[in-house]
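Folds abound. Consider this:
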Amino acid sequence: MIQKLQFYLQSLGRVAVAYSGGVDSTVVLKVALDALGAENVVALLAVSPSLPQSEKEEAIALAKELGARIEMLPTAEVSDPEYQANAPNRCYFCKDHVYRALRQFAEEHGIKHVLDGMNAEDTLDVRPGRAAARELKIISPLHDHGFSKQDVRYTAKSLGLPNWDKPAAACLASRVPYGTSVTPKLLSQIEHAEAALYDLGFRELRVRHHGDVARLEVPEAELMRALQKREAITAALRGVGYIYVTLDLAGLRSGSMNEVLKARAA
């Protein structure tokens, strides 16, 4: 699979990669670097309040480790009333801002092709942002070449990428229920809440924001440890402004805020 991907990327000449530091976009970046050379590849990192500072720093460090040129592009989705309204299609307005910024940079620098890291399984959940990608002609080579998430991780490991087993991440706005306005202040609260729990030793988690209530999701295997640390967790989350702290017994689920959409459609 990786050879076909390399041959395909070689045919593109010069590329910009929508890069986040996650395993998917890192694989695209690494294969592009190997196929085209660093002089023909640029990693573009969209920066806004929806990106945790820790994720930004890790992404920059990894790109430099790979020998990639990286450019940080400020994006203004959080200032967009359509994004702030947080309807179920919020992701469209986010990706529209992000991909337009990436496309503009690419065109200004004579780069025809912009790639992202969507894999073949990413379309199984609610993904309004894909419409923005299609409109702006963003290429998804992992998806187009049939890479599942497992394939991506296997490829990342075989390429020696240090983040091959990094937990899946999502923008901070994905922690907010549809209909609740998304603001920089709210995103900052969530960022600090999750950072406090990382400091307690949890590697995978989501703090879902429900007003005064923080609903903590951790993997099922970590539920007992979370209960054992309930006092420290409660203190940490109250320390960033939550009054009530709950532990979701269903465990960590990617896109769990979309469950309400699926329930309404049933």
About this structure: The longest strand covers residues 41-47.
